[in-house]
Amino acid sequence: MSDIIHLLPDSVANQIAAGEVIQRPASVIKELVENAIDAEATEVHVLVTDAGKTGIQVIDNGKGMSETDARLAFERHATSKIREAADLFALRTMGFRGEALASIAAVAEVELKTRLADEELGTRLLLAGSKVESQEPVSCPKGSNFSVKNLFFNVPARRKFLKANSTELSNILAEFERIVLVHPDVAFYLYSNDSELFNLPVMPLRQRIMAVFGKKLNQQLLSVEVDTTLVKISGYVAKPETARKKGAHQYFFVNGRYMRHPYFHKAVMDAFEHLIPAGEQISYFIYFEVDPANIDVNIHPTKTEIKFENEQAIWQILSAAVKESLGKFNAVPSIDFDTEGLPDIPAFEQPRPIEPPQVHYNADFNPFKTSSSYGGDRSYSRPQTEWESLYAGLEKASRMNDPVVPDEPVEEELSPASVPSEESSSPLPSMMSEGGNVTSGQHWQFKGRYILTSVKSGLMLIDQHRAHVRVLFDRYMEQIRQKHGVAQGVLFPEIVQFPASEVAVLEDIQEDLSAVGFELTSLGGGSYAINGVPSGIEGLKPVELVRNMVHTTLEKGCDVKEEVQSMLALTLARAAAIVYGQVLSVDEMSALVDSLFACESPNYTPDGRVVLTTIREEEIERLFAK
């Protein structure tokens, strides 16, 4: 039997390694910008073309590299950060594996221009698919200039799975935001297709946060500060009243590195318990400084998951620090001992002479003086009091307050307003039930949630909220396809603010929003004025509605136009549908049922939830069989 185990070629091994580190264009930018920061750059320029699919360029003014270092940097496991295994537990730099440049060169065409500060000439290096094509001296500024073109050109399967430009650009911006938030002492500039998206000079941390997410956030942040021998925690948390269901800005950083940590997230949310509604999130920007020997950043290829040695103790410190911040800034409701409006308490006075109380009585009253009907002295009689005059007129008022007893008792659970009389009710038009029976009948409302109607096969129950979602979804989808949504102008336009990572998504779906009825006008800097909203959504908050639709699209990451339109229509339908507990009149129930059975799929909501069900007549008879 011949041997079957063999070594992989370097080109294949490099592509496998690249798949762990370089997942999309955002991964390339993350690695190159982190290398620039490790090189002590004070200014970093990032330029992307077609969301990084065509080209990515990262320019820094850091230390630069020599000719030998430039060539060696693209070899696997080549690094200047560590020399022995013990160095892994004393890391203070961003990159250390020595896989970033090698992984990028394995799946793209790379050009590097770099020069040391004390050298007159720099080095120009060309690579494609891990192969060095040329190396020559060149005149260039101090620092490094990386140009990455045609990402995944030699791995068609990986390139095919890249998302739409708007989605990839959103991922680039999200990765860029994580880096700029932890390095306010470095100036960053980002350009997309020659359009400037970020211009962030050196500034304090709070100003950097506002520059990324908008100045409105400044009034919402509470500072967090605690310093212990185990950990130093600093940063900001938002006020409880700013909680939202989607789109909260939540960031953890440890030793200058972004991380995801669900356990510490629970510590922050624990501090906000009973202060925000269940299911809502709060924004926070928390920075940890710990001894590198007490954390392990080498448990994930992208280094976004970090293991702490004393997680439970840090959890308690973090939760206490956030609670202290909420209490310090009076963000927690407290008892106010304000004396305004209270009665004045008289000052203590010397005791005065005590006077006995005076007793008042009727001297003419004698209970032993009886009337003549019982014998005795007829000259005396009990004083007569005209009690009847005191009750004059009360008998009539008592009869007016008696409850009206109906001729026929009505079941308590059924909404009285929704039970029609025989004279006023009109039969429903014929409709197909899920059992295929054509029926018509009256409607009743049960617990403000279900609509009950009699059908030939039994009793049909319809969930009123889900039924309305089904109806509205079909209506909004038709408006999007036909692009004839009815917009209702607002008297006072509202302003909605988005960070750059969400602006890219909003611009991609703005045409569909307009088709539904939203009229948005860009004010620059990620701000948009809502000048018009779809008709029929009165009472809803348009700012939250637009923000939720953008966040839903961002979370799903859908690229197919039909799927994006479906998500927009479903989000709007859920927000505008009648709520549970809303009492409906007979006409409203009839209109809703008629609209439901005019839909192509009345039995299920767009996300697959049951809208109606039928209790068959045989099942009802079986309940009363005994």
UniProtKB/TrEMBL annotation:
Please provide the record's keywords in A-Z order. Answer: DNA damage, DNA repair, Endonuclease, Hydrolase, Nuclease
Instruction: Write down the superkingdom of origin.
Output: Bacteria
Q: Which GO terms describe its molecular function?
A: ATP binding; ATP hydrolysis activity; ATP-dependent DNA damage sensor activity; endonuclease activity; mismatched DNA binding
Which residues lie within the region annotated Disordered?
Answer: 351-381, 398-436
SMART domains assigned: DNA_mis_repair, MutL_C
Stretches with biased composition (Low complexity): 371-381, 415-434
InterPro entries recorded for this chain?
DNA_mismatch_repair_CS, DNA_mismatch_repair_MutL, DNA_mismatch_S5_2-like, HATPase_C_sf, MutL/Mlh/PMS, MutL/Mlh/Pms-like, MutL_C, MutL_C_dimsub
Q: Is-annotated flag, keyword DNA repair?
A: yes
Instruction: Write out the GO biological process terms.
Output: mismatch repair
Q: Does the keyword DNA damage apply?
A: yes
Q: Cite the MutL C-terminal dimerisation domain residue spans from the record.
A: 442-584
Domain named DNA mismatch repair protein S5: which ranges?
209-327
Pfam families on file = DNA_mis_repair, HATPase_c_3, MutL_C
One cellular component (GO) term of this entry: mismatch repair complex
Q: What does this protein do?
A: This protein is involved in the repair of mismatches in DNA. It is required for dam-dependent methyl-directed DNA mismatch repair. May act as a 'molecular matchmaker', a protein that promotes the formation of a stable complex between two or more DNA-binding proteins in an ATP-dependent manner without itself being part of a final effector complex.
Which family does the UniProt entry place this protein in?
Answer: Belongs to the DNA mismatch repair MutL/HexB family.
The name of this protein is: DNA mismatch repair protein MutL
Q: Which organism is it from?
A: Caecibacteroides pullorum
Q: Which gene encodes it?
A: mutL
